[in-house]
Amino acid sequence: MVNPKEFDVIVVGGGVAGYPSAIRGASLGASVALVECQKLGGICLNWGCIPTKTLIASIEAMEKAKAGEALGFSCRDVVPNWPKMQERKNRVVNQLVQGVEKLLQGNGVSIFYGKGKIRSSQEVVVCLDSGEEIVLRARKGIVIATGSVPLIPSQWPMDGNAILTSDEILGLSSIPESLLIVGGGAIGVEFSRIFNALGSRVILVELMDRILPFLDARIGQMLSLAMKKQGVVIKTGVAVQEMRVQNGKVHTLLTHGETIETEKVLLAIGREANTKALGLASLGIQLNPKGFIQTDLFHQTAVPGIYAVGDVAGRFLLAYTATAEGIRAVEHALGREILPWEPVVPLTIFSRPEVACVGLSESEAQKKGIEVRVGRFFFGANGKALAMDEPDGFVSLIAEASTGQLLGGQVIGPHASDLIAEITLAIQLKATAK
Predict the structure, then answer these.
(1) Which element (helix H / strand E) includes 36?
(2) Are residues 131 and 29 in the same domain?
(3) Do residues 307 and 252 share a domain?
(4) Per-residue pLDDT tens for 202-217?
(5) Hey, which of 59, 129, 269, 386 would disulfide with 197, CB 3.0 to 4.6 Å?
(6) How far apart are CA 133 and CA 115, in angstroms?
């Protein structure tokens, strides 16, 4: 093994937490190494946000064309061209990944493609893709940004062909005739929309009593009604008891005794920290009860000089917060003063209709003992929504009863992903409902 290569900062993971962290460190004059074992851009660019939203853009165009009769025109033979959609998706992803590589190179970041294992608070051992093993030494800090992986129960026969994760389903060569989606969270709901619009028979199964159980009940109930009208079969309050592949079909037994036969199954029951290959146990780095790396408000682990950001730290599991955490961590490692961080973070789900929320919901505020007033306006009475022929949905604002200060907001309906930004800004600026 050759002598260690020294850098000010080593970033392990080149996703949306890692590469901005590396670029920020380099822009501050530090020497930075970045270790990536798969593709730059991580889950978001390659298997998450970007490919799914690219497909949804194609789906939206199809949906609008099919809805033409209500708007006064007709489009014949609106059929999906899956290979073309895949080609476009891959082109967008590749363009962005190449852009990330150019940004890193342009800022002088040294990129090492291989698997990194943290040996101490200052050293990372990298097994390069070429087979060579090298040691990187950090003078000021190591930033762990290895992201997350799909949560897979050990008792299910995952084969990457009939039973798929959200990473694998994006690479399907053809549209499945039928698809069972296990999990009614954001991932499950978005893929329900995609494959239902493509013509698959979609069944969505959720353990809780409604889809999107982490949001107020009104949101899940309204979206559930909309999805059922679109043709998605939704079963709530049930779990998977057994799953087996037989004669090219997946047979899934639910806890209430029903067996569902489909061509494919998508598991969308959550994600877990990607830490297994890092060698954390011997370092004293602590994990929280869900297995994510525990950090303080400065993103530092229990080991001084080692930071964890993005999905691997498990705070938000969102791309934009991961980027912010990565930047803050490297600034702290390089001695810059940063303040403890309690951001106002919106969440958007690209269902049909779209769903978005920020801050406290009505039920969350009540659990905290906060007396609130709630204002709710339905899109059915909104001129633009009617003009667009998208009248389903509402905007809900939650304010503290005594002061009127905005605490949260929820939107279900057209352009929810855009409207939530206005509410987020208002909460950030401590605006009142008036």
Answers:
(1) strand 32-36
(2) yes
(3) no
(4) 999 999 999 999 998 9
(5) 59
(6) 10
Helices (H), 67-216: 68-71, 82-106, 166-169, 186-198
Torsion, Cα 364 369 370 371, to 10 degrees, reads 110
Question: Residue 21 in contact with residue 330, Cβ under 8 Å?
Answer: yes
CA–CA separation, 4 vs 341, rounded Å? 35
Euclidean distance between CA atoms 229 and 333, whole angstroms: 52
Residue 11 and residue 22: Cα distance in Å, rounded? 6
**Banded model confidence at residue 1, pLDDT cuts 50, 70, 90:** low
Kindly provide the b/e burial profile for residues 373-392, where b requires at least 16 CB atoms within 10 angstroms of the residue's own CB: ebeeeebeebeebeeeebbb
How distant, in Å, are the alpha carbons of 39, 183, 232, 244 from that of 156? Answer: 27, 14, 24, 8
Largest CA distance in the chain: 72
Report the distance separating Cα 368 and Cα 365, nearest Å.
Answer: 5
Taking the model in full, what pTM does it have?
A: 0.94
Q: Among 269, 290, 321, which residue terminates a domain?
A: 269
Q: Are residues 32 and 94 in the same domain?
A: yes
What's the mean pLDDT in 108-120? 97
Peptide bond into 353 cis (omega under 30): yes
Q: What is the CATH number of the domain that holds 176?
A: 3.50.50.60
Domain boundaries, position 118: 5-47+87-150+272-333
What DSSP string describes 294-344? P--TTSB-SSTTEEE-GGGGTS---HHHHHHHHHHHHHHHTT---------
Q: Domain count of the chain?
A: 3
